[in-house]
Design goal:
Mean pLDDT: 90
Helix content: 10-25%
Strand content: over 45%
Number of helices: 4
Radius of gyration: 27 Å
Low-confidence stretches: 1-31
Length: 422
């Protein structure tokens, strides 16, 4: 206020007193002059037209247990073609069943998808001809998805037919519930995602994304039900999200850069992971990742970086700080020998390089003896690893320990357990 007052004071000091101010079109109590000034202002700044309201019910959606896909498709087309923006509304207290759908862009203007009610996936697997996706937003810019409603992947039947649940079944793809592909200036907020067929939300090749105040839930034994998956996406903020699933709470894979996750409550699940990277001898690149102010409870892993042997590329400039862990099995882990298969993976010389990783102010308890595990490559060791003010105690009576191989690291402050490089 002092700054504002001093600014206004200096401005007024340079002007004539208000009562002496003369304007050719405005004098005190000159209402005609005031009207003229207001008219000129309105012509210079015309009022913006209101966005078009598009209600899915008006396009034939019934919410009666039958397929509402065509109604949603028509409503999306109408909203996408609106020149002055649109709000696509899914009414509250109703459940709409949808088969696989693609919401295509680019649209003519900004679009808000207001989900107040529930959108639920069609249960018959035969309708999923392209099995990788259920709801997909393609090439949409300036999109906001919000409303406080529910997106339900109805995934139980898919889980029962997974080879990870029934080893006798062949391994087949299951759909990601919601995919945002090549979208930019995207905000997804205040939505409850539940029981996805596979991953709940995937941001693929997107630019400038905010994922805010999301709830993501699925049973702990549901296979591959990652909460938020980030691939090939740059400049994304994931903030204040509650994620309880059967796989990674957040997974960040190749092509992702400038990723920030803060205020994450994770568990059960597999923790927060960068990777896996470099599968099938591929190149992978992830950089500038920050995970902060988060809490993990009862997860299989805490903060993890995982890469396959034989890959190439890098995972670098990564910060994990201000993280609380409770009863986490592998609190801090880098695994450059990741092998997600029953048969042993063949030894290979090349690896994705892991460097410049900071673990700062990480506290809590471990459900296993090994609280810190750096299992790095002999030929491409982990470099620039820093532990600062880390204290992870055991849930049990025995103290925790650290297992470290092929890692170049430093410590600052109090660090426990201490890492002796093998």
């Amino acid at each position: 206020m002092c700054l504002l007052q001093s600014g206004f004071g200096s401005y007024q000091d340079e002007q004539s007193p208000v009562n002496d101010y003369h304007h050719p079109q405005y004098q005190p109590h000159d209402h005609k002059g005031l009207v003229m000034v207001m008219r000129r202002f309105s012509r210079a700044h015309p009022p913006q037209p209101s966005p078009r309201i598009v209600n899915v019910d008006r396009y034939g959606a019934k919410a009666n247990g039958r397929d509402d896909s065509q109604a949603f498709k028509k409503a999306w087309r109408a909203a996408c073609l609106a020149s002055n923006g649109a709000v696509l509304v899914v009414p509250r207290n109703k459940i709409y069943h949808l088969k696989p759908l693609i919401f295509s862009g680019p649209c003519k203007s900004t679009l808000t998808f207001k989900i107040y009610g529930t959108i639920k996936a069609w249960v018959k697997q035969s309708e999923y001809r392209e099995r990788r996706h259920w709801l997909r937003f393609d090439n949409v810019h300036n999109l906001r998805v919000t409303g406080g409603g529910i997106i339900n992947g109805n995934g139980r039947k898919w889980w029962l037919n997974s080879c990870k649940i029934n080893k006798k079944l062949p391994c087949k793809d299951a759909p990601t519930a919601v995919t945002f592909y090549e979208c930019s200036n995207l905000i997804v907020s205040n939505i409850w995602f539940q029981n996805s067929q596979k991953m709940h939300i995937s941001f693929q090749s997107c630019l400038y994304v905010k994922a805010l105040n999301l709830v993501v839930t699925a049973p702990e034994n549901s296979p591959n039900t990652d909460g938020i998956h980030v691939t090939g996406t740059r400049n994304i903020l994931i903030k204040n999200c509650l994620i309880r699933t059967g796989d990674d709470c957040i997974s960040i894979v190749s092509g992702s850069k400038n990723v920030r996750a803060t205020g994450i409550t994770c568990g059960p699940g597999h923790g927060i992971s960068i990777g896996s990277l470099g599968a099938d001898n591929s190149e992978a690149y992830v950089s500038n990742v920050e995970v902060t102010n988060s809490k993990l409870t009862g997860t299989t892993n805490g903060v993890r970086i995982k890469t396959w042997q034989g890959g190439s590329g890098f995972a670098k400039n990564i910060i994990f700080h201000n993280i609380e862990m409770k009863n986490v099995t592998n609190p801090i882990i880098i695994d450059q020998n990741y092998c997600d298969q029953d048969d042993p993976c063949p030894q290979q010389a090349s690896a994705v390089k892991v460097s410049n990783v900071l673990y700062r102010n990480i506290k809590g308890t471990s459900a296993s003896k090994v609280a810190i595990n750096f299992d790095c490559s002999e030929t491409v060791p982990c470099q620039g690893i820093l532990l600062q003010d880390v204290a992870i105690a055991s849930k049990h009576e025995e103290p925790t320990k650290a297992s470290c191989a092929n890692v170049i690291l430093d410590t600052r402050g109090d660090v426990f357990p201490y890492c002796f490089n093998n």
